[in-house]
């Protein structure tokens, strides 16, 4: 874990690909893409279901680890239309009905509003603002500059180079002066390489730890 202060708020960056916001007792995460493996299997592509189950179990473990009031999901909770994996999610949700879930909809969150209501999920269609923080799935650069924005969507990753210029690539948290991009929570996703500049911060998720990466200049 890595402690990071932003707008006088205390954030804990966790290797489980989430941020715990201490003052609001909220777990911030993005891009779970639940049901993605089922979507591929329906299309005839053999993707093992254990990937989906492992992501859900990891989320359960994080909920149990942190003393939280709510989950703030910054888009793409689900991948597409309903399938058997989303039925499993509903059963999982019933077991954790005391946890508040708030979703800022992403481009993949195409289920009808009635489905989210039945699953006990509060939906914000464009943006959510709490204190000095705002939450959108994408395009944080277009947000009011008086609020610090959290987004997802691009699945940021960063390369770490060794002395012989060999490199390894890891998902990361990416902080600029005005916004933060969260790593994809779901492991069945790709990454988009970011190159932090002076004054920016990238925190690579390396196995069970979070480490800051040097800037490009």
Defining key terms:
single chain; seven-stranded mixed β-sheet; 16 strands; alpha/beta; 217 residues; Purple Acid Phosphatase, chain A, domain 2; 34% strand
Tell me the CATH topology: Purple Acid Phosphatase, chain A, domain 2
What class, by secondary structure content? alpha/beta
Specify the CATH class: Alpha Beta
State the major sheet: 9 strands, mixed
Q: SSE order, as H and E? A: EEEEHHEHEHEEEEEEEEEE
Low-confidence stretches: none
Shape summary: globular
Helix coverage percent:
10-25%
Query: Rg to the nearest angstrom?
Result: 17 Å
Number of domains: 1
Measured by DSSP, the beta-strand proportion falls in 25-35%
The CATH architecture designation is 4-Layer Sandwich
How far the N terminus sits from the C terminus, by CA atoms, comes to: 25 Å
Q: How many H/I helices?
A: 4
Number of strands: 16
Mean of residue pLDDT values: 82
């Amino acid at each position: 874990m890595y402690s990071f202060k932003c707008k006088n708020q205390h954030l804990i960056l966790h290797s489980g690909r989430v941020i715990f916001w201490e003052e609001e007792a909220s777990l911030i995460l993005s891009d779970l893409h639940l049901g993605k493996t089922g979507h591929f299997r329906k299309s005839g592509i053999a993707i093992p279901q254990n990937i989906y189950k492992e992501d859900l179990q990891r989320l359960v473990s994080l909920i149990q680890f942190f003393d939280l009031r709510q989950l703030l999901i910054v888009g793409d909770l689900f991948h597409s239309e309903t399938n058997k994996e989303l039925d499993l999610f509903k059963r999982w949700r019933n077991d954790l009905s005391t946890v508040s879930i708030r979703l800022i909809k992403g481009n993949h969150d195409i289920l009808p509003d009635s489905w989210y209501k039945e699953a006990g999920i509060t939906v914000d269609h464009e943006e959510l603002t709490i204190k000095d923080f705002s939450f959108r799935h994408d395009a944080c650069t277009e947000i009011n500059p008086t609020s610090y924005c959290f987004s997802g969507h691009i699945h940021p990753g960063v390369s770490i180079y060794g002395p012989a210029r060999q490199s390894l690539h890891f998902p990361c948290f990416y902080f600029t002066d005005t916004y933060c991009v969260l790593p994809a929570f779901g492991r069945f996703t790709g990454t988009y390489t970011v190159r932090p500049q002076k004054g920016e911060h990238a925190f690579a998720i390396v196995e069970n730890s979070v480490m800051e990466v040097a800037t490009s200049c």
